[in-house]
Amino acid sequence: MDFVIRRLTSSLSRSTLRLSRFLLGLRFAAARRQSLLMDSPVLNQLFRQLFQHPACRQSWRSSSALSGRRPGCVRLSSTPSRQQSRNLSFQSFKQRIFGHSKLDPGTLWTPREHVMQNVDNFEEQLQAYPLVTAKELRHHRERPRQVKMLTREFIDGWEAYPLLYNHNYGYFSKHATIFRPGEPFYFNEIEDGPAFYRMLGERYHEFEDQLDETNPDVARQLWHTPTELFRPYYGETIARYLVSNYKLTLYPYHDLIIYEMGAGNGTMMMNILDYIRDTDYEVYQRTKYKIIEISPSLASLQMQNLTDSLDAAGHSDRVEIINRSIFDWDTYVHSPCFFLALEVFDNFSHDQIRYDLKTELPQQGGVLIDANGEFLEYYNTQLDPIASRFLRVRQAAARRKFRTPLTSKYMKLMRSQLPWQQGHRYTLPEYIPTRLMQFFDILNTYFPGHRLIASDFDTLPDAVPGVNAPVVQTRYKRRTVPVSTPFVHQGYFDIFFPTDFNTTEDIYRAVTGKLTQVMSHEDFMRRWAYIEDTETKNGENPLLTCIKYPSKHISVSARVLSLP
Predict the structure, then answer these.
(1) Number of domains the chain contains
(2) Which residues contact 124 (CB under 8 A, 6 or more apart)?
(3) CATH of the domain at 216
(4) Measuring CA to CA, which of 6, 85, 152, 215 is 20 to 30 A from 432?
């Protein structure tokens, strides 16, 4: 028996060694291919053009002034048609180093790979710089320096939304523009799907050409929504769902009250009100539409579009635009209502969590911003109450297995045998939707009679490394430029996350106590849309095929809550 065991052990060891050598060979081959690509004359020419941009040249000068620093690095795109570069002011964070005894033993820091930092100096900064929140930076006109921030505070913020929404240097207030295709597409007159995409591309260029005539901007961030692309059909589909459920459960004892968060141009509002007015005037007379909009510029645009539209005659008396953050909400709404959150979850900030491979204990990520505006990522073994609560709620509420960076014990053992994994003590980061959980708290506290209708993408390409990681991208001279870190220059980058609807549904149920239903975008449209309106001549339907990933999250317990 001992002889058999020794033979099996020896055979297993040889197999593990062969597997390790094979994987190591693959890694070396991939590295060699990447090196060959980096020597491409085409890429050299591309980088040379990028470095001529004033912002890049300024960043080059400021970085070169620091001894021992390398000005920048570039990551190759896996998609040939998309340009992908790192902003010169920001480097990747890979090398992990423990702080010395002078540092809080619960804090670990990650310096940039190509920017060598003085460890003692960093320790002093980490101890001296205050930990600030977005609320504290709300009225700052300059980008913060010499501070520490948790990842969720840096990305999004509790009330100020410093990166995405800050009025002085935020993404949506500085460069973001919502694409408006002009006249609706008459799909029944379009030959097929490719013809629709050609028309869409032409209108896209025409729209931006018109903007450049009056306000040229090489860093304009142009983005589009299903509401705009499929106007009015997308809005009419949502309206059909709202009216049907209102008449089944609330009519005639309650008014139809609709809240929409993040309404963009206000197109969804006008499409819904137009449909209700034209199809059921009795319900229209009892309809109240309230928009909660954090951006002052978008709130003004929504009101302007409402007053300028000839089709919106009569809507003004039924619309209220509330210019505030949903996280500032403090008014109790006792009446049953519908709450729309369409393509909103993706911009809610997340916390960054990684795990110790040996102990499997979580560590919370943050960023230190030094006197030069450089970003340095660090981790703390002491989780703040919000992140800690999310992990507890998810663990208790999950009805299905959820994905984390931690692997099974067998896979952990196999990975520990690989030579390039010997020095790795921590997992890749996991991005947890703590702000989304707080949004559910707001709904539960101030909108107890709500029904939530939410739509967003459940997977995204070109995300940064990690689990449930975001896509971080900017746009320069009409080209999309994705980057590989969320710690980027404020005001120029869009950061958006995928939504794990299984986990979201479980947490929503745990926080609000409501029943829910999650369905795919296509299933929802087939049930509530008049899909023949969006069919092309050859039978293709862009409304069903153009948007591949969104899911619909619908809460259905308002009937129970409305009972005495």
Answers:
(1) 1
(2) none
(3) 3.40.50.150
(4) 85
CA angle 561, 563, 564 (to 5 degrees): 115
Pairing of strands 176-178, 221-223: parallel
- For residues 226 and 234, give the distance between their C-alpha atoms in angstroms, rounded to a whole number: 7
Entry field: residues in the chain: 564
**Is residue 191 situated within a structural domain?**
yes
Cα–Cα distance for residue pair 38/316, rounded to 1 Å? 57
Angle between helices 267-279 and 296-308 (to 10 degrees): 30
Q: How far apart are CA 406 and CA 456, in angstroms?
A: 26
Q: How far is CA 160 from the centre of its chain?
A: 17
Q: Is 419 helix (H, G, I), strand (E, B) or coil?
A: helix
Q: Looking at the domain assignment, is residue 282 inside a domain?
A: yes
Does residue 138 sit within a domain? no
**Residue span of the structural domain in which 299 resides:** 178-348+435-460+497-561
DSSP annotation of 486: S
pTM: 0.77
pLDDT in tens, the chain (564 residues): 555 445 544 554 555 445 445 444 444 444 444 443 434 444 444 444 444 544 444 444 443 333 333 333 322 233 333 333 333 222 332 232 223 334 444 555 454 444 444 445 777 788 889 999 888 887 777 788 899 999 999 987 533 444 444 444 454 545 568 888 889 999 999 999 999 999 999 998 999 989 888 888 887 878 788 999 999 999 999 999 999 999 999 999 999 999 999 899 999 999 999 999 999 999 999 999 999 998 888 899 999 988 887 676 779 899 999 999 999 999 999 999 999 999 999 999 999 999 998 889 999 999 999 888 889 999 999 999 999 999 999 999 999 999 999 876 666 666 666 665 555 788 999 999 999 999 999 999 999 999 999 999 988 988 999 999 999 988 888 888 889 999 987 777 889 999 999 999 999 999 999 999 999 999 999 999 999 999 999 999 999 987 764 565 665 432 222 222
For residue 240, what are the CA distances in angstroms to 231, 246, 255, 261, 453? 14, 10, 16, 19, 13
Check if the beta carbon of residue 165 is closer than 8 Å to that of residue 294. yes
Unique residue bearing structure tokens 């507890």:
392
Does residue 162 form part of some domain?
no
